[in-house]
Amino acid sequence: MNMYEHIKKIKLLFLIGIIVISACIVLVYLSLISLKTLGIISAILFVSLGILTNMLIDKHQKVIAKLQNTTEQAIQNIKRLEKSQISKDQNIQELSALNYAMDQTVLYARITKDGTVISLGARFAKLLKVDQDYQNKNLADLMNLSEVQKNRLFLLIAQNKGGVFNEEFEFETVSGSKIWLDVSILTVFKSSGNMERFVLCTDISKRKEAQKEIERLNADAYKEKEAIQKSNASQIVEAQEEERKRIAKEIHDSIGQMLTALKFNIESINTNNTEKTNQKIEGLKQLSKDLIQGVRMATFNLTPPELKDYGISIALQKMAQELSKLTNKNIVFENTSSPELRFSSLVETNLYRVTQEAVNNAIKYAKSDYILISINNSSSILSIIIDDNGKGFDIDKIPSKPQNNAEGGMGLFFMKERMNYINGRIFISSKPGEGTRITINYALSK
Q1: Considering the entire predicted model, what is its pTM?
Q2: DSSP structure string for 49-65
Q3: What's the CATH class of domain 106-203?
Q4: What average pLDDT does the segment 324-343 reach?
């Protein structure tokens, strides 16, 4: 019951009360009832009217309060609806902006499961040079792919039943330029139960160009490295040939001459002349001694058996002892390395040759009379150090890659090449008049 119905009831009650009072007055006038009876009826009527009025007013206040509460709730609901509508409008605007941004910047297409285009992004359509009449056409045809790539794209679309598939495709635009696209295909299942494909493309033409440039640079670097290796190999072969010539020359000039002299001296011995025979025998003894020393000197550069049998430390110790005897130089060997250290034959041979070259240089060119060979190791590195008190040299004046032996530095060059070959390192420190230190480092495998 609303407020208007309550007001109608109050008016009706007052009207009835007025009619009753008027009837009572008429009856009194007609002397049908007494004044006392009229007063009682009026009192009862007014009391009833008062009670009913209070009840109606109380009910009316409750209804008004309820109406006010309902009104406030309705206002709040309206405000919430307004906020929701504002948020909805903002979301619609954001989605519209996002859709526009995607349409203008992202290469995408919606296609059916057989490749027929449902819709194209504006940028993709512009790239493909197609107008709005692209529906019911196949994406592979619009992309102007080669037959091989077209069949590959058809296969990917047909097999794509879940997940994301991507592959790179090259196609030619209408203007004739080549473009590489990284094409990703995603299957989208709609609420209706149907499914379609979402194709997202990324232009990777610049990356492909950079990749080709890197491949070209790598090919050039490989060719350059190959040329350097060929040059180094050629120089190594030449150095080996020079070493063979040197050994042959030493044998011919020194050992050969001594053997010839030994032969002539033996043939010239006259056993009848005892005094001259004794003199020639003494000369033959000295010649034989010189011959033995010459043979040792000529053959010492060959790989010593100690290297294969006992390792680098024992071989270097033997080298120091033999060179001291042969050259009368003070060549000292110090070993603080672990005695059980052994390496492959390739590593030990190169370590030995580099050390041998350093010692020979100190003897022949630096004119040293004191040479110290020390070998030690840590947990990660084996070090061989060759110190001499020779005349030293200016490192900056030694060419990094000599063209021939006449320029000098060939020995240092091959020392470096040998250490590079076994992934080792060599450090050379020298000054004119202050001697030379050569440090050889080789990493120990863990």
Answers
A1: 0.45
A2: HHHHHHHHHHHHHHHHH
A3: alpha beta
A4: 90
